[in-house]
Amino acid sequence: MRYIIIGAGAVGGTIGGRLAEGGHEVVLVARGAHYEALRAGGLRLTTPEGTRVHRLPVVQGPDGLGPLLRTDDVLILSVKTQDSTDALDAWSARPVAGGGTAGEVLPLVCAQNGVESERLALRRFRHVYGMCVWLPATHTEPGSVSAAGTPVSGVLHLGRYPSGADGTARGIAADLEKSRFLAPVATDVMRWKYAKLLSNLANAIEAVSGVIASDEARALLQRALAEGRAALTAAGIEAAPPAEQAAARDGRMTFEPLDGAERGGGSSWQSLSRGTGTIEADYLNGEIVLLGRAHGVPTPVNEALQRIANTFARERRPAGSLGAGELAALVDGD
Question: Is the distance from CB of 30 to CB of 61 less than 8 angstroms?
Fold first, then answer.
């Protein structure tokens, strides 16, 4: 199989780099300065084993691969959810050698936070797979990605969307397992993704106020989580419980500081650090807001965090520049 990594940032770059190290054919898809850096100097991947440069094919979109995709192509979608629609539209209509389009015949894996991209993808692709990404990685400079997990870089639960498993899922999982990942095949992958959604409610707090370390930040997170759990319960949505998550992950991966640097922040913090002008809050805290409104559950904390994070992104304010106490006061005054 040839893996086309649509969005070769922190997650996509790590998956693509590790797959290449495992001997698999990989194409990276990127934009702007990151594309230029990858094309000029390759992908600089830093892990606890050191830094390697992978000179892989890199394109800005499907046109860069010629008129036809291959029948053995696997599309890994790892852009932020707010960029999913444009990417799905660009790739789904691409013709495939032997007949049909990518949307008709090729598998697409949503290696993303949140739960919206699978729904968007299923409108355009017949064969959609969800991936619950537990892969702490960083991408703040063009051409460079780092992942601190060892002895594996991440745990990637994978299954068909909305449920089930098949030979394609098992084949992809086998390739990932050979490439320094744990990749359990899950017939109920969305249970795992909803559990990850709850943990990602911290992203907005971290993006705005930095790593969650103070009592004020921890208290705010607990309030956001309580709303999230209540909204899922009201919607009749099951998330993998903490004990099940721990059984799948604990003791299987540890983190080593890279180059002696302290951890900066997660994906939303990184978006602000890169000054992208957008953030994923509409599909993380905003997913809880949506469920709350649909099922009569108040979600004022998540509503405020969604609004504040979006304002930070739109105004390109520095990541982590608002104190946790100030953030809590804004939330309560919203």
Answer: no
Q: What does pLDDT average to in each consecutive run of 10 residues of the chain (334 residues)?
A: 97 98 98 97 96 97 97 98 97 97 98 98 98 94 95 97 98 98 98 98 95 94 98 98 92 80 74 90 98 98 97 93 94 84
Cis peptide before 151 (omega within 30 of 0): yes
Entry pTM: 0.95
Is residue 219 within 8 A of residue 328, CB to CB? The reply is: yes
What's the one-letter identity of residue 144? Answer: S
Q: Which amino acid is at 221?
A: L
